[in-house]
Amino acid sequence: MNQYYPKVFLLTCFLIFLQLLIFDRINLFGFMNPSIYIIVLITHRYDLDQFNFIVIGFLLGFMMDILSQSAGSHSLSCVTVSFLRPLITKFSLGPNYDDFSSPFSSGILISNRILYCLLIIIIHELILNAYSYFNWTHTFKILKLTIANSIFTFIILISILNLFNTKE
Prior knowledge:
Elements: H1 4-21, H2 39-43, H3 50-68, H4 73-93, H5 110-133, H6 139-163
Helix pairs in contact: 3-4, 4-5, 5-6
């Protein structure tokens, strides 16, 4: 447990660095940017304190807001996902999610993992885009960006997670 949080800190710093230097500059089709820094929120262990997880989510979003000069949209979306994650895990992994230590444990079905990742990504992107535009007249644009960025982020995240997946 004492070694877990320094690893999370280093992973967070590395992912923020990659996000700001590489993935924010992709602009596929002129509007699609993946949010790879939410890997920290997706892969966090279940058996740790929920309060610490919400603090990690806030610090992750706050650092993204500071470095990308956004108006708190990353903080709001990361804290919301951190707060809703127990509900998302119960919905996607079933009531016995306490038996596993992480969402990528060996006993979890692939369809449940995909649903878990998609729900976290969609909620994150929806709140991020809704807060960024913050106007009802941009509803279609918010939905378009949410769907496109969620699909693109999902493809990139699953590729990264499968690339660095360790066999248990």
